[in-house]
Amino acid sequence: MPDPAYDLPLTHRLKSRAAISLLFTEGKSLVQEPLRLVYRQQPAKGDVAYRIAFSVSKRNHPKATDRNRIKRLMREGFRLEQHQLQIPEGIHADIICLYQSKKPTTFNELKGKFHLALERLSKELERGL
Fold first, then answer.
1. What are the structural domains of the chain?
2. Which residues make beta-bridge pairs with 13?
């Protein structure tokens, strides 16, 4: 049975078009090449501390198989490094992770970038209180 600490349940997925468009209009971003994290913090709602979505540009990766592979690698890299994301009590964060490179990547590279990006995001969320 998988360890629940490394789980990424569906309740943590950001799916709402309204929430995603709000992210791009009101959100802040940080870049850890090849990743760009756009985030928006708000008062906590429910028991979910964050919701996340993953996106790969069709312009940079025209083949759907390449986009799907990169998104799969991003989800897995985030799932393994999500313990780096420390969200303060009473805060909810919506996050979208964008892959911006035109070159494909390896899993180990993405996992390392997520480690650094989530540490930076945690500091930004603490500072934003």
1. 9-127 (3.30.230.10)
2. 52
Is pTM, for the whole model, over 0.85?
Answer: yes
Kindly report the length of the chain.
Answer: 129
Q: Which two tokens stand for residue 17?
A: 């078009």
Q: Which residues of 2-35 are buried (b: 16+ CB within 10 A; e: fewer)?
A: eeeeeeeeeebebeeeeebeebeeebeeeebebb
What six digits make up the tokens of 121? 């995001």
SS3 for the chain is CCCHHHCCCHHHECCCHHHHHHHHHHCEEEEECCEEEEEEEEECCCCCCEEEEEEECCCCCCCHHHHHHHHHHHHHHHHHHHHHCCCCCCEEEEEEEEECCCCCCCHHHHHHHHHHHHHHHHHHHHHCC
Within 10 Å of residue 38's Cβ, how many Cβ atoms? 19
> For 83-88, what is the mean pLDDT?
89
